Amino acid sequence: MPPLPPSLIVCSDNGSLSLGRCPVLPTFRPLEAEIRTTFIPALLRRNVNDLERDLLGLPARYGGMGILDPTLECDFAHANSLLISAPLVRLILRQESDFDPVELEISTKEIRKHIDKLCDEKYKERARNISLHATEEIKQSMKLSTEKGASSWLTCIPSFEHGTILHKGDFVDAVSLRYGWRLSDLPANCACGASFDVRHALDCKLGGYRTIQHNEVRDLLAQWVIL
Ligand SMILES: [Zn+2]
Questions:
Q1: What are phi and psi of 185, to 5 degrees?
Q2: Closest to 100 in 3D by CA, of 113, 111, 85, 87
Q3: How confident is the model over 30-44, as pLDDT tens digits?
């Protein structure tokens, strides 16, 4: 079998090699248009502006939701694919039948570490740029979202056993709270007469919600003392 030209070899996420030409940017524009105009409005029940779209494209640990923009990611992903598959490609081009799998594993791990570092730098830079043009509310939400564990609910595996299942309405509300967006279907005014928003819902003395919050903290502390 003659050696394959490198441009025809594509490495998949699981490390296997397949044949095909590397994707090019225009191919992904219709996909991004569908994500922006169909997927995100269906998922979040709202349209997003350019800055919000960029923000949602960041990984959760940088304040986004991991809804990657394929037009921004494809070149980088392709470059990484070439990097990670380079040791295998070299073996294929040399047509060698004997090789040390341990050595290959070590070199692949090294490359993976390098790629992870590149990804981190890229997303940090992108988050900095978004923050520069963001409203104070979004800046604040980005800051809070990057705190340790603050975005775990977005990346954990849904499980009834561990209480990590969110229904559609809960999910949309949680995302709205994360980004400081107004929740849908809120009444204009509270029963106490003040105008109603999330902050007022947490602070209002009418209805006993503040007492419930207080009691929950008290009960939790009491449980810890017993333990
Ligand atoms: Zn009130």
A1: 65, 25
A2: 87
A3: 999 999 999 999 999
Where do we find the tokens 């009960």? 219
| Contact yes or no for 125/119 (Cβ under 8 A) | no
**What pTM does this model have?**
0.74
For Cα atoms 137, 142, 148, give the angle at the middle one, nearest 5 degrees.
Answer: 135
Beta bridge partners of 10: 18
| Residue 215 CA, ligand 1 centroid: distance in Å | 20
Ligand 1 center–CA 222 separation, angstroms: 30
Residue 203 is given by DSSP the state H
What spacing in Å lies between the alpha carbon of 189 and ligand 1's midpoint? Answer: 8
For the chain, the domains span 6-145, 186-226
Query: Can you read off the two tokens belonging to residue 186?
Result: 């809120």
pLDDT digits (tens, 9 = 90+) for 70-80: 998 888 888 89
Closest CA to 150 of 213, 62, 220: 62
The two tokens of residue 176 are 């709205």
For 126-146, b/e burial (b = at least 16 CB within 10 A) is bbeebeeebeeebbebbeebe
